[in-house]
Design brief:
With 430 residues, this protein is of the alpha/beta class. It is built from 10 helices and 21 strands. It has helices at residues 3-21, 26-31, 54-63, 99-115, 137-146, 158-167, 177-190, 213-223, 335-342, 376-391, and strands spanning 80-83, 94-97, 123-126, 149-152, 172-175, 201-204, 226-233, 237-241, 249-252, 258-262, 275-280, 292-298, 313-315, 320-321, 326-328, 331-333, 348-356, 363-370, 396-399, 415-418, 425-428.
C-alpha cells in the first residue's frame, strides 16, 4: 500500500472497530461515553479519543475479574487466554481472544515473517517452555499455517536444545536476545560449532537487544546467522518485524494497527524524535485497544524503507521503556545504553546491575562475570573504563566468579533494586 492507502485503511479500520464493539464493550463503552462518535470523522478526529493506559486495564481486571470488561463479545465466545509477565507492575494482565481474533494475530505474524524473507521451506525452533505468556504461541501456529515445520523445545536443558535443533535441521530460532547469547555460551562449553549448523536466522524479541548493535553483532558472529528483531505485546499482539532490507530497525504492521509516537504529555513528536509508542489494534476486534500507551521508547526513521514499504519504521527498534531510566548523580542511565556498552566488552559472560535509590542519591553497582578464560579484575577494569569513556561518569564495578550470575530463558532481569548497604532487597525490576 501507499502511505495514502494505509491512512485510509487505518481510518476505516478504526471506524469499523468502534461500530462493532460499542456499546457491547464494557470498558470502552464507559471510557468513550462522553464522545459523540457518530460525529467524529477519521483520521481527522482520531486524536480526540483518549489514551488507554496499563494502569486502567489492571484496575478494570482487579475490579471485575477475570476479564475486567475488556472484551467485545459474550465471554463464552472466548477460547484463548494469555497474560503478561507482570515485571513492570508486579501484577499480570490477562488477555482473551475468540477464534476469529486469534486468527487475526496469525495473519499478522505471516505478514511480518514475509518482511524477513522467511518462507514455508524454513523449520522453526522454539527453545523455551510455553506458558500463559503470549510470547511465540502465535508465531508457532502461524508457522504451521505457512507450512513450516514448527518444533517446540520446552522441558529440555540448553545442551539438549542445541543438539535437538541441529539434529532436526532447524533454520530459524525464536527466542530472546539473552537466551540466544546463553545458547551460544553453552555451545562453546559443549564444543558445538553453531556457525556450521543449519540455522540461518534468529527471531529475537521480549527485550531490547535485536537492534542494539553490540548485542546483535555478538549473536550474529557466534551463530553465523542473521538476527531479525521483532516486537509485540500480549495486549496488542504482533506489532513489528525487521525488514530483510533494513537491518536493526522495526517495520510496524500498519495493516493491523494504527501507531503514534508521543512525548510524555501525549503530544505527537516529529519523525526522528524519540517518544513513546501508542497503538490502536483495530483488527483484533474481540479484544482491541484504542490509543494504548505501550511505555516503549522509539524513534521513527523519516527516511523511506529500502524495501519500498510505506509502513512506519523504527530506528534501532524498541530502545527501552519510558519508566526504566534512572538518574545517577545528575546523569541519565538507561538499560539499553548500558547493554550496548557491556556487549562490546571482550571476556564478559554476564552482568547484573544493582540499584539503591533508598537514600538521597541513587547508587549503582555493576556485577560482572568473566568467561573462564578471563581474569575477573581485568574484566572489572575494562568495564569501569568503558562506562566512564561512554557515559562520562563512574559507577562501582565488581567482578564475581564464573557461573555466579543467573541466566534467563525468557526476559533477562539484569536490573534489580536493593540496598547496597545491606542484603535486604527493596524490589525487583526487569
Amino acid at each position: 500500500m501507499t502511505r495514502q492507502d494505509l491512512d485510509r485503511h487505518q481510518a476505516d479500520g478504526v471506524a469499523s472497530l468502534l461500530a462493532q464493539i460499542l456499546p457491547g464493550h464494557p470498558f470502552y463503552a464507559r471510557k468513550l461515553a462522553d464522545f459523540s462518535l457518530s460525529r467524529l470523522s477519521f483520521p481527522r478526529d482520531f486524536q480526540r479519543l483518549p489514551f488507554t493506559t496499563r494502569a486502567e486495564l489492571l484496575q478494570a481486571q482487579l475490579a471485575h475479574p477475570p476479564h475486567g470488561g475488556l472484551i467485545s463479545f459474550p465471554f463464552e465466545r472466548y477460547t484463548r487466554m494469555h497474560q503478561t509477565s507482570g515485571t513492570s507492575s508486579g501484577v499480570p494482565l490477562r488477555w482473551y481472544d475468540t477464534p476469529e481474533s486469534w486468527n487475526s494475530l496469525l495473519d499478522g505474524w505471516i505478514e511480518k515473517l514475509q518482511f524477513g524473507g522467511i518462507t514455508a521451506r524454513d523449520t522453526f525452533f522454539f527453545p523455551f517452555s510455553f506458558g500463559p505468556f503470549l510470547g511465540f504461541w502465535s508465531a508457532f501456529e502461524a508457522g504451521t499455517r505457512m507450512g513450516c515445520r514448527s518444533l517446540p523445545g520446552g522441558g529440555m536443558s540448553s545442551s539438549a536444545r542445541l543438539r535437538f535443533l541441529i539434529e532436526n535441521k532447524a533454520t530459524v530460532v525464536f527466542c530472546t536476545p539473552t537466551y540466544a547469547l546463553r545458547l551460544l555460551e553453552v555451545a562453546q562449553q559443549d564444543g558445538i560449532d553453531l556457525i556450521s549448523s543449519p540455522v540461518r536466522a534468529l527471531v529475537v524479541a521480549g527485550e531490547p537487544g535485536g537492534s542494539i548493535t553490540s548485542t546483535r553483532a555478538r549473536i550474529e558472529s557466534g551463530w553465523g546467522a542473521r538476527v531479525f528483531d521483532h516486537n509485540g505485546m500480549t495486549e496488542t499482539g504482533p506489532l513489528g518485524f525487521e525488514c530483510l532490507e533494513s537491518p536493526a530497525s522495526l517495520t510496524l504492521l500498519e495493516t493491523a494497527i494504527l501507531p503514534e509516537v508521543v512525548d510524555p504529555e501525549g503530544r505527537p513528536v516529529t519523525p526522528g524524535t524519540p517518544g513513546e509508542l501508542v497503538v490502536t489494534s483495530f483488527r483484533r476486534v474481540a479484544s482491541p485497544l484504542i490509543r494504548y500507551r505501550t511505555g516503549d521508547v522509539v524513534c521513527v526513521d523519516p527516511a523511506p524503507c529500502p524495501s519500498g514499504r510505506a509502513m512506519m519504521r523504527l530506528k534501532q527498534g524498541i530502545t527501552g521503556r519510558a519508566d526504566e531510566m534512572i538518574v545517577v548523580r545528575g546523569n541519565n542511565l538507561h538499560p539499553a545504553a548500558l547493554q550496548a556498552i557491556m556487549h562490546r566488552i571482550e571476556g564478559l559472560a554476564e552482568y547484573l546491575v544493582e540499584i539503591d535509590d533508598s537514600g538521597t542519591m541513587t547508587e549503582v553497582r555493576v556485577l560482572v562475570e568473566p568467561t573462564t578464560a578471563t581474569d575477573g579484575v581485568t574484566l572489572a577494569n575494562r568495564v569501569d573504563r568503558a562506562i566512564r569513556d561512554a557515559l562520562l561518569f563512574r559507577v562501582e564495578v565488581r567482578a564475581v566468579e564464573p557461573g555466579r550470575l543467573p541466566r534467563a530463558e525468557m526476559k533477562a532481569k539484569r536490573w534489580i533494586r536493593k540496598s547496597l548497604a545491606g542484603d535486604a532487597p527493596l524490589a525487583s525490576g526487569a
